[in-house]
Amino acid sequence: MRWLPDAMGRLQAAALELFLERGYEATTVADIAERAGLTKRTFFRYFADKREVLFIGSERLVEAFVAAVTQAPAEAPPLAAMEAGLHALGDSFTAERHRFAAERAAIIASSPELQERELIKLAAMAAAAAAALRARGVGEPAATLAADAAITVFRVAFSRWVADDRPEGFRALTRESLDTLRMLAAAP
Amino acid sequence: MRWLPDAMGRLQAAALELFLERGYEATTVADIAERAGLTKRTFFRYFADKREVLFIGSERLVEAFVAAVTQAPAEAPPLAAMEAGLHALGDSFTAERHRFAAERAAIIASSPELQERELIKLAAMAAAAAAALRARGVGEPAATLAADAAITVFRVAFSRWVADDRPEGFRALTRESLDTLRMLAAAP
DNA sequence: CGCTCGATGTCATTTAGTGCCATCACGTTA
DNA sequence: TAACGTGATGGCACTAAATGACATCGAGCG
What is the pLDDT of residues B18-60, one digit of tens each? Predict the structure, then answer.
């Protein structure tokens, strides 16, 4: 299997299969590499560590988010700009990807180690979003607060989207969550 | 040093010293145990893993938070109850503990591994806070959103408190951050 | 004194992760 | 066509985290 194309993709697919079959902790990196027809050493050339095989590509989400925030109308208040970013993210969560997203989410939910990694990825997204807000002239701590709040909205919307058997549109879920947050903040 | 009292405290002190001297990654568990006059095996009896030596005791913060939320006036809206919880937390961050908190925060900031652990501890606190809100009759997703927003406020307030050479009161910082969040949510 | 029990030590083992160098397949060039 | 260079992969050795099984120590108690 050496020299077959798409070694990284094969490793990702093998990892997903094995995590679903035996669980994350019961799967060794050597197992994954073997199923992909490669070796442990090669696995660590593509992924910084065992968890990363489930998270690679998250930079593209961050880029999409930041781009949408940057392009939002200059007059848009911080949370409105964040909403634009969230909707850009939503474009990645289509009906076709729902099955994969749900499987991946189930694996992550089964392991604290993986939850940690997910949290730091979301924190990185929040940091990038806060930087984009600052570039729009938003000061601190407003930028950090708005960015973190937006990521919270994203987490809530995403978990609802994943849990739903009949996935509704992601946009509607984010709008609902954001509205709820606004109501909470408006309460005396 | 075997049978000397407070093995756990000695391990924590040794770890903090070594992390400050050499950095977290350059310190092995064997190093810590040796300085504490114990062995690696004993370290892992007190702490689930190497990172946990910096985080043990966080359950007490969670308890204080939850207790304050539970005891808040029944009519208090969700974010007001969260504010009560945050102020209860603030009681733990006194001027005497400022030095320790700053050193600990600097160590955590130096290592992604430790940041991951901190994030999951905060997530656990948010989950407990959300459960406390639900017990007060708050529905979902409002409970999760309010709890996560409160933790965001806490993070902002805490980082400002730590960074400050002349530590102001923690209460004032949380109130400011919460007010900023309310303003953001109120913007069109 | 001898016993029991909790805390600690010792040893072996698995696995994640990394550095170093060898090897392979492929394209380029002479 | 043969030599060469290059990027991807394998092989091997090594460190350190983490865990299980079992031995040992020290203190209190009858």
Answer: 999 999 999 999 999 999 999 999 999 999 999 999 999 999 9
User: For residue B105, what is the domain's CATH number?
Assistant: 1.10.357.10
Tokens of A114: 């993986």
pLDDT of residue B47: 98
What are the tens digits of pLDDT across the range B89-122? 998 898 889 999 999 999 999 999 999 999 999 9
Instruction: Note whether B80 and B28 are same-domain residues.
Output: no
B17 lies in which domain range? 7-53
Protein B38 CA to nucleic acid D27 C1', in Å?
Answer: 19
Instruction: Take residue A32 and report the two structure tokens written for it.
Output: 């994954």
Does some domain include residue B2?
Answer: no
Q: Does some domain include residue A2? A: no
B123 with A123: Cβ contact below 8 A: no
Neighbours of A12 (CB within 10 A): 19
Query: In the numeric block, which tokens belong to residue A28?
Result: 């060794």
A31 and A69 share a domain?
no
Through-space separation of residue A32 CA and nucleotide C26 C1' in angstroms: 27
**Which residues, other chains included, contact A171 with Cβ-Cβ below 8 Å and sequence gap of 6+?**
A87, A90
In this structure, are A80 and A125 located in the same domain? Answer: yes
B148 and B119 within one domain: yes
Do A184 and B78 count as a contact with CB atoms less than 8 A apart?
Answer: yes
The answer to whether the C-beta of B3 is closer than 7 A to strand D is: yes
Closest CB to B141: pick one of A116, A180, A188.
Answer: A180
B14 contacts B35 by C-beta, under 8 angstroms: yes
CA A78 to chain B, closest CA, distance in angstroms equals 7
Per-residue model confidence (pLDDT) at position B11: 98
State the total domains in chain A.
2
Say yes or no: A78 contacts chain B, CB-CB below 8 A: yes
Distance between CA atoms of B52 and B23, rounded to whole angstroms?
A: 16
